[in-house]
Amino acid sequence: MHKILEVENVTKYYGSGSVITKALDGISLTVNEGDFTAIMGASGSGKSTLLNVIATIDRVSAGMILVDGKNISDMRENRLSAFRRDKLGFIFQDYNLLDTLTIGENITLPLNLKRIDAAHTEKELLRVSKALGVEDQLKKFPYELSGGQRQRAACARAIITNPALILADEPTGALDSANSKNLMKTFELMNQSLNSTILMVTHDAVIGSYAHRVLFLKDGKIWNELNKGDRSQLDMYHEILTVMAALGGDVGAH
Amino acid sequence: MVLTKLAARNVKRQIGNYLIYFITVSLTVALLYAFCNMLYNEEFQRYARVMVELRSSLRGILIFVSLFVAFILGYATSHMLKLRKREFGTYLTLGMTRKNILTVFILETVIMCAAALALGIVAGLFLYQGIMVMATHLMNIEFAFAAYSFQGLISTVVLVCGIFVLASVISAVYLKRVSIYDLIHGDKKVAKVVRFPVFWLLVMLISFCVILASGYRLYFELNRSIGNTNGVILLYLILALGVAVLLFHIGLARSVTNLMLKSRRLCAKETNTFIFRQLSGKLGSNSIMAGILSFLIFFAIIGSNMSFWVKVSQMPAINQYYPFDISARLDKENGDPAINIDDAKKVIRDFTDIEFSLPYNIYTTGKSDLYSMTDWSTYGYKEFKDSFIRESDYNKLLAALGKKEVALNGGYRIVSNLPQVSQYDFSNADLKLGGRIYQFEGFSEKMPLTVDGYFFAVVPDQVAEGMSIQSECIAMNVVDNGFDVEELWSALSYDHVIKNGPHSYKDSDFNIREYIILKNKVDSAIFIISMLYISIVFVFMAMAILALKTLSELSDDRQRYSILYRLGTGYRELSKTLFRQIFSFFFLPFALPIILSIPITIGCAQLIKLSGYDEIVGLFYTSSIMLSLTLIAIYLLYFAATYLIARRNVLHEMS
Question: Looking at the domain assignment, is residue A112 inside a domain?
Answer without folding.
Answer: yes
